Amino acid sequence: MDLTTQYLGMKLKNPLVASASPLSENLNSIRKLEDAGVSAIVLHSLFEEQLALETLDLHHHLTHGTESYAESLTYFPEPVRFYGGPDEYLEHIEKAKKACAIPIIASLNGYTAGGWTKYAKHIEQVGADALELNIYHIPTQFDQSGEAIEQSYIDVLQSVKKQISIPVAVKLSPFFSNMAYMARRLDEAGADALVLFNRFYQPDIDLENLDVRPNVILSTPHAMRLPLRWIAILYGHLKCNLAATSGIHTDEDVIKMLMVGANVTMLCSTLLKNGVDEARRIQDGIVEWMEENEYESVAQMQGSMSQKSCANPEAFERANYMKTLQSYQPRS
Amino acid sequence: MNSKYLTIDGNEAAAMIALKVNEVAAIYPITPSSPMGEYIDEWTAAGKTNIWNTIPLVQEMQSEAGAAGAVHGALQRGALTTTFTASQGLLLMIPNMYKIAGELTATVFHVAARSLAAQGLSIFGDHSDVMATRATGFALLSSCSVQEVMDFALIAQRATLESRIPFIHFFDGFRTSHEINKIQVIEDDHIRQMIDDRRVIEHRNRGLTPDDPVIRGTAQNPDVYFQARETVNRYYEQCPDLVQQAMDQFAGLTGRQYKLFDYYGPADAERIMIIMGSGAETAQDTVDYLSQQGEKVGLLKVRLYRPFSIRHFVAALPETTRSIAVMDRTKEPGASGEPMYLDVVNAISEARREHGLKIDPYIIGGRYGLSSKEFTPAMIKAVFDELKKDKPKNHFTVGINDDVTHTSLEFDAAYTIESESGIRAIFYGLGSDGTVSSNKSSIKIIGENTDKFAQAYFVYDSKKAGSMTVSHLRFGPKPIHSAFLVSRANFVGCHQFNFLDKYDVLEKLDPSGVFLVNSPYSKEEIWNHLPQKVQETIIAKNVKFYTIDAYKIARDSGMGGRINTIMQTCFFAISGVLPREEAIEAIKTQIKKVYGKKGEEIVKMNFAAVDRTLDHLFEVDYPKEVSSSVPMKAAVPSEAPDFVQQVTARMIAQKGDQLPVSAMPVDGTYPVGTSKWERRNIAQEIPEWDPAVCIQCGKCVAVCPHSVIRTKIYEPSYSDSAPDGFLSTACKDRELAEKKYTIQVAPEDCTGCAICVDVCPAKNKSETRLKAINMKPQAPILEREKVNWDYFTQIPETDRSLVKHSSIRGVQSLEPLFEFSGACAGCGETPYIKLMTQLFGDRALVANATGCSSIYGGNLPTTPWTKNEEGRGPAWSNSLFEDNAEFGLGFRIALNKQTEYAAELIKNCESHIGTQLVDAILNAQQIDEADIFEQRKRIEEAKHKLGNIDTAEADHLRSVIDLLVKKSVWIIGGDGWAYDIGFGGLDHVMASGENVNILVLDTEVYSNTGGQMSKSTPRAAVAKFAAAGKPLPKKDLARIAMTYQHVYIANVAMGAKDEHTLKAFIEAERYPGPSLIIAYSHCIAHGINMTKALNNQKAAVDSGYFPLFRYNPELVKDGKNPLILDSKDPKIRFKDYAYLENRFKMLTKTKPEEARHLMQQAQRDVSSRWSILKEMSSDGSTNDASTDGK
Q1: Residue from A50, A54, A57, A68 whose CB has the most chain B CBs within 10 Å, to mutate
Q2: Is residue A170 part of a domain?
Q3: Tell me, what's the pLDDT at A110?
Q4: Quick check: is B1042 in a domain?
Q5: Of B158, B388, B447, B664, which residue is most buried, by most CB within 10 angstroms?
């Protein structure tokens, strides 16, 4: 049984990749992920805004209240060195590389072309096998056009691509007027893969305290329908690879994603919920299914159910809903 | 000689040498010496080595007594060992110092000399502490300047190794320890050459070892002790010569020659001043000035004060000496003269008698400069002038007006010798606006980038919130010796516009000098906003007047409220101290140097501020006529009491130096309730109440650190005469529904911390961003709220019998007897103190350990402890840092005895008072406030019946009868006291079983001295002396106390469960034995958002790190488990709490690996402590819903 797949110019032993999550924050769980059979690990993200905010926050607290009262002119020892900015993250990449043999994909999260470039270069230097650009942005300005927003994605990608030679994947949200057009532009701008899709943490209302609170909800299986549709549509039209993320919880989910054309599938919520060993169970399930259904390799099934290859391509299009209704036959 | 220069302060200079020539340092924080220990801790944490290429080991101890013991032990093992201390700390070291000297052990203690607590504590500089060690056998070597601190630190080290006499190397606290000056640095090679390794090895070989055992520290009997004591004489005889040799060798290496007694002045001087310390620097400048005018005056600087070498002393005096003034920076009440005066008198007498000294000068002695009192050329001239007289005044004072015993010399305050060359600048700023930082940066730029010399000295406020700073800077072509504040400035910067009508900021500005003001007004508008006096001065002095809106630039550049870089750029641009372009470049280089390691964002932000500044800096073209009628503000309102008008107001207005001796209480006793007159107006925003939204829960009142939010429940008739805009509503308490309820803010006393808004649970239903109180800009509502506050204070206090004292809702309207303190905005300690005063203040005695609470509670000019309308309130005192529990126990045992005596007397006076009343008094329960109220009535009745009976017993009874009303003893202090320095006493007091209430305001660091680690500091937190993160867990004081089984103990965190705190306070006070309340107190030293600090308290509890519990021994009587765990099982991880705070987060940025490791261990600490408490409280765990506060 050949489970190998191509992703970001690498031959991966199977299509199960651990996506950016707290699991990749420490070396122990990275080792456990490898032991559980995942073929690559996307590290937790280095957040562009967080870097800036942390620096300013630290500075504020080191200066707040100082030089005011003669007995307490400062409140903290003056450190000789700060591992500010990306230092700690870069060290983590280095250690992760040493801790396991599978590819390590670093992740940068932000939305401006500014600081990224520099961090990307450092990430390459410390040995990351590839970089995932997580463009995490909710535009709220009333005077910013969709065109400008789309261009900003292209700018970010190009500025990073110019600086580094390791492959770059772009993880993005589905909220574009025409996802296919956007995917093509990113493909043309040099993206080595598209990771579909980003899930934003949606705010919630706390009725007891009348507060707006970020509310982290792990993905549910129905979340995979959206990437499934778009991978199916995009497959075969782009040079870049496609990675499926969101709502992939079972072996069947993985198989479906591969069939619509994903090169890899990203696992996160299920590993957090069921433990790292879930990856092993999923892999076993895939093998079992492939054996039962006489598939020889992952490559064989990849794209087999894409819009291009399937029997009813219109099922992936908007008209799908109406056809569903028309095909509904009330029981007599 | 080609030397490297550094621009540093005295503490850093001493620490640099101490690091190089020691193997061990045992330290303990005390102002103003703490930075020496902090430097050495930071440097060793960063791997800096001594001259033997090994990193010295630094050990923080629990007290200076402990530090001295550890030093003694390390020395006995032969390690080169040092310590740093001052004041009370040095006093605590004295017993060991006798031992160390008696055993002829080489060591150098570096001392930032400071006043001793007498009628009051002072953190400032004089020689009282050092003088108290004269008899220990330590050599005393005095430095006068920052340069000398570095030089003498090394000379002392060599001399101690050569002589085997231990040394105190001292310099003036603050004036030298904190003065920044440009000095030549001693090269490592020279340090190496000064220390003879043979002596080091001899020292080491004298160390105790089981490989070659000896016994040292024996007990001796009358037969030999005396002789043995005399064995050291020859070492003391040789010591001065060995010090001089060290000075000579040092001169050979560095070119700087010192003498044991350094004479300065013309060879034929007739009038000589003899002085030690920084005063000698000013005296040197003054001697130069007077000599140029033909005055025959000279100066003898005393370097080696002990052993006092008469031979060297007389050799240094000019043969023409006719009169001598000996200046002592100390006071020895009752002595026939101050110590150095007596030494000089004796030396001259002995030298004349025994060594044929020819001169016979008239010698007088005087005191100067206590507690960093300015010592100026004017005062020095007054002393020299006095020496001209036929009968000069002996035992004089100078620098004050002693109108009581008339010791003081008059001096001309306007006299100045300020150099014409160079720049002399004064900057007025706030602590929070970064003024001091900008000046520290400027002096480094000039000191380290030019060949100019530079000096900076900073004067700070006595308050921690909204505190004013005054920076005094000098730059010039020659080394700067003037150890006094700038007396004539050619540049004055006022970084806060609202200082202009409070302080005379232009007083010291030279004619045609520069005046730079940060103001919100344009160059066209500003003139019309200036007070009349400022306009007059600007015109009269023909001032060059500049303005900038620095806050706007700061906001635009992302700098928030810090205008340091902006004002610094202005100073360089206007002063011309460097060419403008060069200056900008230098500022940017300095920004990179200081902030570069912290992140690019900060550098960028500061660069942006620099780049925007010059376009917004304007010279003001002002008219030559005064147009303003804006008066200067009075320091206190006219209705303030006499003492406040006559004394306190002068201190507030920065004119305290002018108060005569007669204005001061003779025994340190001051009236209470003075903070209410200061009205500091430091808040930009203050809370405003919305009665329609308010649910009257009282949480805002409970958490307000400065007691500026008050509520009253009162008769509706008071609303009728209320001013317009005075808000009230119906009281929501069903039983009080006919009454009115008002929340009123004291608008001029609020610090604007906004913690009240954060805690407010009531949200506006239509616009949820609004609550029942909301922050509003102060200026537009100030006048209205001043009127409202005045009216509010006239409404009678809420009838205490109407409200429930067992709920926060009820307690809110009890009058606090602790108000408007000098604590930090958002302080986590003061709400607990305030709560105590609301509940028990009218019958409380408070023993307060030295620390934050003694400073915001007792630092002049104004103090927050106050009294109620009946004239009752907490009686407060501070003894020391280390003895507070014992001090409070002293209150208790005195009360016990005097109450017993009162009971005996009242029984004896039964015939006058009546048996029934006496019995009622003696058998009164006095458990709650109603009981106390009844007892007070009985006592009044008894007093009435006692009338004017003229017997000795009646007289005695009248003096103690009030003690028959139960008193509440509170022993209050921080964790530095309770966990460390005062723990022995605390333990003993708990063991005594006496009825005292111990309130530990647990900030988990030494907050007052700037955040040094205590044994309460949690594992994984960064603190001073724990730069690499505290490796061990917080001491569990509560569980230690539980071992006694008779101590009431509560762990409380008001921010997590205020009702629980209240319940614990009430139970603790009622408990008839010792009670210990450990109160989680968030602190500015945690590096947190102080506005949201209650969330940190909640998180500390939710994580299980700071569990809430009560241990009530009384429950055992009912067969119950005394331990009640009041918080629920941890619901968040320790790190979810910890990483809300910079003290933990910082380690992830400085030592990420250690941070991870320590955080794991810290989680285990939390989990294991929780399990133990859970186990201990099983069957006792109630998770009592009644304390939920909901």
Answers
A1: A68
A2: yes
A3: 76
A4: yes
A5: B158
